[in-house]
């Protein structure tokens, strides 16, 4: 499999369209999930996925098989998104996490819930954009607060505070879900 | 704290690998964009090639048409040349499709050139000079065969060619009249040129420990060229050009960065990093304050740290970099040009020396595809000499204006870097295209 990917990348470097399509098919579902998590809406996510992959294919010559290719693609996609947001200073108009309507929480309460990627994705998507970005960068993509502050053009304090509040909000949601899950389990038995 | 870690772990494990199928049309858009970019890359080469081919075709066609016309005319024309003595009076009725009568009052001491069907192209009547009952005909094209001056015999020798008649007509005069008009033998012209330029280095660096590949850069150069043409086929020129040289460096560089692993996270000890590129042909570069490479846990878990002098764990990290080194010069050339073919289309070769003054020194660093820092290449000389060779093709389009195409080769005569460790003499190819205005 590793050799296969290496061959595909080599062909991709030569500009082989079939190889480029293969790379896209292999990595686009993961990258699309990232794009959705880092952007404000589906349309922006699609735009960035497109722009990110164009960058991947035009810069693939610089990839020299040191480190994971997926990690390299992931960095390019994330960098493309946050670079664009920083340029446009979009995050200045974010709203407070407290403004999230609590009634949204109820929609899961009567359902059989299993904590999986899909559910966590839905949960994280309910966070305001900047909180979501900070949480994703720090927790999922291993950025430091210093790096986040530079990349998003916010202070380190804001980054830490965003993370803390996002984390707390997500914890509450998960705790509620766990409680419901337990209730369902008890009633079923 | 433990709950935080659990939450983080839950999201990292589930969302790190989470997948959502993107809409189907995105690949089509990507493909379309890649095609456009491919076309954009091809266009400059394509345009240059077509321009070169077009110029050559125009030149060849022009030459062929002239040759054919001359041959046809030669068959029909009858030229009479009467013996000339001390004085040669010539006048021109400027009615190009009738005939030239070279004498106002034809006598046994005057030259008469007549043609039954001459093919003569003469410039605007007003441009002709009438002086002392003489008319100096100004030829349409910038073709001067001054060796005919004062040698009326040559007229006879060249009367087979209609073109020769009108060209020489400007100069068939008495010795005295010719001297009065000697200033006209120096033809001044100014040319505005621009060109795509491809730079390369003359030395390939094999001792590069950073696994970096160097390649040439593409840029646009241009400027003004002043030329003075003597009565012979020689001309001398100078001017002012903006030229570019440089290189692209791409590959991997190893960075030693102190990191620690705390709470399952990779935490760097420093906020920024300095990327040094010491071993490249053009000159060393240091990019200060570049963001640290993003290191994930998986990367570090497969590597053993070493301890640096401060007692910190240090990891060697390789990042993909892409650097564009660009030097921009004002070039002042001093060159000699020789016209090999002096027909309607002029083919010439030129060689000369250029003084180069550095006006811009820029290096841009892209780390993992993102533009992260700018710097300069160290120890680049502010002034240098280069040599320049070119082949020029000039074709007239209007009375005083002609189009020029000119492939040029430039080569720096000494290293552009002051450091004794660097010996970088870049060379570049460019394809000048432009317009020339002649002051005659």
Would you kindly provide a written description of the structure presented here, covering whatever features stand out?
- With 189 residues, chain A is mainly α.
- Chain A folds into two domains: 88 residues, Rna Polymerase Sigma Factor, Chain: A; 96 residues, Arc Repressor Mutant, subunit A.
- Helices cover 73% and strands 0% of the residues of chain A.
- Chain A contains nine helices and no strands.
- Chain A is globular and about 55 Å long.
- About 5% of the residues of chain A have low confidence.
- With 440 residues, chain B is of the alpha+beta class.
- Among the domains of chain B are: 108 residues, no CATH class; 183 residues, Beta Barrel (Porin).
- Chain B is built from six helices and 16 strands.
- Chain B has an eight-stranded antiparallel barrel.
- In chain B, a hairpin with a 7-residue loop joins strand 8 and strand 9.
- The longest helix of chain B has 52 residues.
- The chains are: A mainly alpha (189), B alpha+beta (440).
- Chains A and B meet through helix 2, helix 3, helix 4, helix 6 and helix 7 of A and helix 1, helix 2, strand 6, strand 7 and helix 6 of B.
Short recap of the structure:
The complex is a heterodimer of chains A (189) and B (440). Chain A has 189 residues and is mainly α.
């Amino acid at each position: 499999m590793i050799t296969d990917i290496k061959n595909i990348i080599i062909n991709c470097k030569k500009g082989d369209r079939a190889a480029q399509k293969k790379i896209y098919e292999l990595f686009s579902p993961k990258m699309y999930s990232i794009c959705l998590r880092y952007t404000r809406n589906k349309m922006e996510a699609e735009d960035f996925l497109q722009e990110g992959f164009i960058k991947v294919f035009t810069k693939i010559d610089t990839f020299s098989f040191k480190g994971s290719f997926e990690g390299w693609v992931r960095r390019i996609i994330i960098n493309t998104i946050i670079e664009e947001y920083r340029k446009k200073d979009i995050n200045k108009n974010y709203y407070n996490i407290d403004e999230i309507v609590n009634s949204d929480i109820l929609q899961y309460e009567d359902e059989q819930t299993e904590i999986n990627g899909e559910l966590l994705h839905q949960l994280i998507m309910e966070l305001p954009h900047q909180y979501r970005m900070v949480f994703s960068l720090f927790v999922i993509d291993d950025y430091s607060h210093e790096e986040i502050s530079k990349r998003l053009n916010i202070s380190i304090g804001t980054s830490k505070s965003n993370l803390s509040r996002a984390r707390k909000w997500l914890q509450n949601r998960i705790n509620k879900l766990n409680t419901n899950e337990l209730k369902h389990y008890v009633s079923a038995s | 704290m433990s709950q935080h870690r659990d939450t983080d772990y839950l999201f990292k494990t589930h969302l790190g690998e989470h997948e959502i199928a993107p809409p189907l049309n995105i690949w089509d858009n990507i493909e379309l964009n890649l095609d456009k970019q491919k076309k954009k890359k091809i266009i400059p080469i394509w345009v240059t090639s077509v321009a070169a081919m077009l110029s050559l075709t125009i030149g060849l066609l022009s030459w062929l048409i002239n040759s054919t016309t001359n041959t046809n005319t030669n068959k029909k024309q009858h030229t009479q040349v009467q013996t000339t003595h001390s004085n040669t009076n010539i006048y021109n009725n400027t009615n190009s499709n009738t005939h030239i009568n070279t004498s106002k009052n034809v006598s046994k001491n005057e030259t008469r050139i007549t043609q039954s069907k001459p093919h003569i192209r003469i410039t605007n009547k007003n441009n002709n000079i009438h002086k002392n009952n003489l008319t100096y005909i100004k030829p349409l094209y910038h073709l001067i065969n001054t060796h005919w001056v004062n040698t009326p015999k040559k007229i006879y020798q060249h009367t087979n060619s209609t073109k020769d008649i009108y060209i020489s007509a400007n100069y068939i005069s008495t010795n005295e009249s010719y001297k009065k008009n000697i200033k006209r033998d120096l033809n001044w012209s100014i040319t505005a040129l621009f060109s795509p330029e491809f730079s390369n280095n003359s030395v390939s660096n094999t001792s590069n420990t950073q696994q970096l590949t160097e390649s040439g850069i593409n840029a646009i150069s241009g400027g003004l060229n002043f030329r003075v043409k003597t009565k012979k086929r020689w001309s001398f020129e100078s001017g002012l050009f903006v030229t570019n040289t440089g290189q692209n460096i791409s590959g991997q560089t190893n960075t030693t960065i102190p990191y620690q692993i705390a709470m399952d996270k990779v935490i760097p000890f420093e906020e920024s990093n300095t990327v040094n590129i010491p071993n490249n042909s053009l000159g060393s570069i240091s990019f200060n304050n570049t963001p640290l490479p993003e290191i994930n846990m998986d990367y570090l878990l497969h590597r053993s740290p070493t301890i640096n002098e401060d007692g910190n764990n240090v990891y060697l990290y390789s990042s993909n970099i892409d650097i564009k080194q660009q030097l921009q010069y004002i070039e002042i050339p001093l060159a000699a040009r020789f016209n090999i073919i002096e027909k309607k289309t002029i083919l010439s070769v030129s060689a000369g020396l250029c003084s180069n003054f550095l006006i811009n020194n820029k290096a841009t660093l892209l780390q993992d595809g993102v533009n992260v820092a700018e710097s300069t290449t160290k120890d680049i000389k502010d002034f240098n000499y280069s040599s320049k060779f070119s082949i020029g093709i000039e074709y007239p389009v209007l009375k005083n204006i002609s189009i020029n195409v000119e492939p040029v080769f430039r080569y720096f005569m000494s290293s552009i870097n002051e450091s004794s460790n660097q010996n970088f003499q870049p060379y570049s190819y460019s394809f000048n295209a432009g317009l020339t205005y002649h002051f005659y």
